[in-house]
Each structure stands twice: as C-alpha cells, then as structure tokens.
Amino acid sequence: MNGDLISLRPLSADDAPALWDAIGPVSETWRWVGHGSPMPESAKDLEALFQKNIERETAEFLAIVDNSTGLVIGATAFLDIRPDDQHCEIGSTFIVPNFRGGNRNVEAKYLMLAEAFEKRDCVRVTIKANMLNSRSRTAIEKIGAKFEGLLRNHRKERDGSWRTTAYYSVIVEEWPETKVHLLNLLKRNSPPE
After folding, report:
1. Residues of the domain holding 85
2. What digits encode the pLDDT tens for the residues 95-135?
3. What distance in Å separates the CA atoms of residue 191 and residue 193, rounded to the nearest whole number?
4. What is the structure's pLDDT at 25?
5. Smallest Cα–Cα separation from 18: which of 61, 83, 66?
6. Does a structural domain hold residue 193?
7. Strand order across the beta sheet in which 87-95 lies
8. Tens of pLDDT along 68-94?
9. Into how many domains does the chain fold?
C-alpha cells in the first residue's frame, strides 16, 4: 500500500534493529508495544516480538516506511481478521518519535481503512487503545473513528494491573464520510494509487 508520505509493506524481524535504534531502550513507546510478551529491552527482544507477531494466523503486521527517506519508521497491523464476519481491527501502531506528526499516521490509517472497506469487503473496523494511552486515543479520534465505550478490566498488563480498553470503530456506512475527512486532513483530492 503506497501513499504520498508513507508506504506499508509486510513487517520483517529484520526491521527491529533500526526501529530499536531510532526509539532507544528507554521509551514510553515500549510500554504500549507487545502485549503478552515481556517489555522489549534490546533489539533482539524486539526482533523476537516481531517474529512472534508475524507468525500470528489472524493478523498481518506491516512496516511503516517513510517515502522521503526510505526508512522504516514504525509498525502497524491488521488484527483479529475475521473474513466471515467481514471484520478486522487496526492496531499495534507505533511511529518513532522523530517522525511523529506530519500526518504519517493519518495516511497509514487512510491506506488501511481503504484496504479494509474497498478491497476486503469489511463492514466494521475496530480500533482500540488502553484508556490511559492518551497519545493513541487522540490519534484514533483525529482520524474520525467513533468512540463506543470502555471495556473495564479487559486484560492484565505486564505490571499486573488491569487494563481498561477504549473501543472505537468505523463501520461501512461511515466510510464515505470518514474517507473525505481523512483526505481533507491529508489535503488532497484523490486517493493514492
């Protein structure tokens, strides 16, 4: 999937060292990345996490590539892919700090939502975040996803606390309006090819 600012391609475990170097070992990013695995403490840990994610049967993990530099600047995923239910989730997104802003995440979500609704025949795309992850929730709200509510004590976090999950979605009936909203954010009149 190719846009003006970024492109999305399958994530590789080989992408881990560059992302680790770009983010650094002490980062708020790692707090939110890789539920169900220990917090990565090295590039090798991140590589193992990527490999584990790549092997998941109901997910497709993608590298976010900055078109101007050719650098892998983050990752995202289609999760909980259920073709029979015409559903998927978009999540596990992170972008290295030096490349945040500038609509890269907006374009990634545009490309993924267009793929979901226009090529995969989805009727619902779920997007969710830890209630406490204000950066993620702000990004989700910016793209026009609708807040559905909180799922309390949804899952146990690495530190033993219980996560309350904020649920958002875009449904097929909303896609035309959401698409226009995203294109306006990206300030262009036609979708990328």
Report:
1. 6-186
2. 999 998 889 999 999 999 999 999 999 999 999 999 999 99
3. 6
4. 79
5. 66
6. no
7. 6-10, 60-66, 72-82, 87-95, 124-130, 162-171, 146-156
8. 999 999 999 999 999 999 999 999 999
9. 1
In this predicted model, what pLDDT tens digit does every residue of 122-132 receive, in sequence order? 999 999 999 99
According to DSSP, residue 56 is labeled: -
Does residue 191 form part of some domain?
no
Question: Does the residue 58 lie in any domain?
Answer: yes
CATH code at position 113: 3.40.630.30
Encode pLDDT of 136-162 as tens digits: 999 999 999 999 999 999 988 888 889
Strands (E), the chain: 6-10, 60-66, 72-82, 87-95, 124-130, 146-156, 162-171
Read off the amino acid at residue 97. Answer: P
19-48 in b/e burial notation, b at 16+ Cβ within 10 A?
A: bbebbeeebebbebbbeeeeebeeeebbbb
Q: Mean pLDDT, to the nearest integer, of 53-61? A: 92
Cβ–Cβ under 8 Å, residues 107 and 101: no
